[in-house]
Predict the structure.
Amino acid sequence: MKECGLALGGGAVLGAAHVGVLQAVEEIGVPVGFISGTSIGAFIAALYAFGKKAAEIGDIVIALDWLDVSGISLSQYGLLSNRKFGKIVIDLLGRKNIEDAALPLVIVSTDISTGCKVVFTRGDVASAVMASSCIPGLFRPVQYEEKLLVDGVLVENVPVASLRAIGAEKVICVDLLGKHLYREPQHIVGVLLNAFYSAIASATSVQLDSADLCITPDLSGFNLIDTSQIEDIIPQGYDAAISSLRAWKG
């Protein structure tokens, strides 16, 4: 089998399912030669691109408190700052540039001033992950090279096209929202996340059309923000991936 590209989509805490997908990829021996990510997918893609295996990423994700990566910000642009998320990336990987990764890595963000897609294939990986996971309205935009950057899900939630652009001929993608059910939010963060992700769900389906295989874990029993669910979400990603990959690989 030729090397494949792996595109990891956004979905807040549901991103733990990506760990299960990576476990299945490693078990079956799918040759991943490229990887891309948007939002929480960018975080996990970056870790994998720099050589961390699924088991180690799982330990990292389980220990990661989604709200603890945020600090209160008095900015007019958002309620919180995700600077701590960038610090976590630096603590885990060191100060690295995307082009230093063992696997070609693509991270997608959005220029909130223009609405245009910003594709990171070079530059500071921590800044790129921060920008890609910066939910507008909730987090303060990331200022990078005179741009105000926010979450890439606005322009490419599952970054299949961005992966093909760097040479991936075969693309496996992971859609976290395809089988997600929205529930009554309990606080302002829940309101913002529900509104944000429900708005981009229909656009995501178009992005999946050009993938060779789309893995869509059943995450209907989980919400977007409760980190206590993480250990239960990971096996959902594995179960969806192992059957899909076996059938696809033949």
Notes: Confidence is low (pLDDT under 50) at residues 69-79.
